[in-house]
Specification:
It is built from 10 helices and 19 strands. It is of the alpha+beta class. It folds into 2 domains: 71 residues; 312 residues, no CATH class. Strands 1, 2, 5, 12, 13, 14, 15, 16, 17, 18 and 19 form an 11-stranded antiparallel β-sheet that branches. A 4-stranded antiparallel β-sheet has the order 3-4-10-11, with no helix packed on it. Strands 6-7 form a two-stranded antiparallel sheet. Helix 1 runs antiparallel to helix 10. The longest helix is centred in the C-terminal third of the chain and has 46 residues.
């Protein structure tokens, strides 16, 4: 009887070991299956899941705008008072609903395309009408000192006086965002007298993109090879700052690691930038990793030497010590436009305190991307940017006589959001999450049960042998 028991326990140990080995084999097989599926379906090529989501965004993308209403325009001009601003919004538009156009496969490894710009007003998601009026900075008058040589400021002043123009004006939301005929530009016989914060927009594009399809190397899928047919940016006159790094942010190469930064290029800010892992999140039953743009990415070159080449005017930025603000005039036809996060989040205190009405808040104003780590798809994004126009004193332009120092004046901040819709999330769970979870449960069960069975039988065998 004892010998028979020993045989049974030995068989039990072997069975348990077999279960553990099977679980281990399933781990290797499962990982290989997932990798092969991603390598197949993650390629930007007609017929793949990645191509469907790449050529046209399946989930709706919205841009919310908060414009700044100026409460003390006379005091600013007459006594250089601190600007008092009140944000109004959101005014919401549906964007990026048009598919990519001029798609052309250049070879087996890259594809080029245009992303048409388009915007449709969504009244049900807005606080008011596009015809709402507010007091805002006079774009042409404020930018003139930076666009015109100082020797010609007297001519600008003559035109402003003739038109009885002020540093501030009352305009509708639609005019400020998308453009209006400006009397100053018309008087100056400009080739295009229309101006606006985002003019021109509808029917335009920011240039041709050329990206890797991932067919030869899935770790390069979606990464930008060229923009406007150039491998480097022409804006910063520096090897580092002119690099075009990463993707466009809508997706990243699969198998995203928390320890590594993810890079993306944005033509809105005329540069590449990175985001760092912050935490895990659950989005409609899908595990995602949240990446955020950190303060260091926008720090002054005193704190982050890598940013030295983004500072183009040492006088205005006080020897490049200002943090959280980026001058992009070199890619905006010389216009004194400065980009920051909303309400000057992560910016120098001097910038935040120079405007009454700035209340930076990380939760409301940071830019983040929720990335599914296996596929690299961005399932939820919130791209938040504030657009500021800098104006400065001018002895020859009367409306700027009493301005004491350069002022970074907020015009609008936007929140471009997209979240995976319910149906796409369901298909994502069915095709990826559920199979992976089930496979993981089977693997873990086999290993745990096998280990427990083997250990139990081994202990019983030892006890039986010792008793015998």
């Amino acid at each position: 009887m004892g010998c028979h028991k020993i045989i049974l326990l030995s068989i039990g140990i072997a069975v348990g070991a077999l279960l553990v080995i099977t679980g281990g084999i399933l781990i290797a097989y499962g990982n290989e299956t997932v990798h092969n599926t991603i390598k197949k379906e993650g390629v930007i090529e007609e017929g793949t899941l990645a191509y469907e989501n790449w050529v046209q965004t399946g989930s709706p993308v919205y841009r919310q705008f908060w414009l700044f209403d100026v409460k003390n325009p006379s005091e600013i001009m007459n006594s250089s008072a601190k600007p008092v601003l009140e944000q109004k919004g959101p005014y919401t538009y549906r964007v990026r609903y048009l598919p990519k156009s001029n798609v052309e496969v250049n070879d087996n490894y890259t594809v080029s395309y245009l992303q048409p710009y388009s915007a449709i007003f969504e009244p049900n998601m807005s606080v008011g009408s596009e015809r709402d009026k507010l007091t805002a900075l006079n774009l042409a008058a404020a930018a003139a000192p930076s666009l015109v040589h100082p020797a010609l400021h007297f001519m600008v002043n003559r035109i402003l006086k003739k038109l009885n123009a002020s540093l501030f004006q009352t305009r509708t939301v639609e005019e400020l965002l998308w453009g209006y005929e400006d009397p100053i530009l018309k008087q100056m016989q400009s080739k295009d007298p229309i101006t606006g914060i985002f003019y021109p927009y509808n029917g335009t594009a920011d240039g041709y993109y050329n990206v890797f399809t991932g067919k030869d190397d899935i770790s390069k899928v979606g990464i930008i090879d060229r923009w406007r047919n150039k491998k480097k940016l022409p804006f910063w006159n520096d090897t580092y700052c002119d690099m075009i790094n990463g993707t466009d942010g809508s997706s990243f190469p699969p198998f995203v690691h928390n320890e590594k930064k993810i890079y993306f290029f944005s033509s809105d800010i005329c540069r590449s930038i990175y985001a760092e892992y912050e935490q895990k999140k659950s989005l409609k039953g899908i595990r995602v990793h949240r990446f955020v743009i950190p303060a260091m990415a926008l720090a002054s070159n005193v704190e982050n030497p890598d940013n030295h080449c983004y500072c183009k005017d040492m006088m205005i930025t006080k020897n490049c010590t200002f943090a959280g603000i980026l001058g992009i005039s070199s890619c905006k036809e010389g216009k004194p436009i400065y980009i920051s996060l909303p309400h000057f989040l992560y910016a120098s205190d001097e910038l935040v305190n120079s405007i009454d009405g700035m209340r930076p808040n990380k939760e409301e104003h940071e830019t983040f991307l929720d990335v599914e780590p296996v596929t690299g798809f961005s399932l939820r994004i919130a791209k938040r940017i504030q657009i500021n126009l800098m104006f400065k004193p001018s002895e020859k332009i009367e409306i700027l006589h009493k301005i004491k120092e350069p002022t970074y004046f907020p015009l609008v901040w936007l929140n471009e959001t997209a979240t995976i819709d319910d149906e796409t999330a369901r298909r994502f769970r069915v095709s990826l999450v559920i199979p992976m979870t089930a496979l993981g449960i089977v693997q873990l069960t086999l290993i745990c049960v096998g280990s427990l069975f083997s250990i139990s039988c081994a202990i019983a065998l030892c006890m039986t042998s010792r008793s015998k």
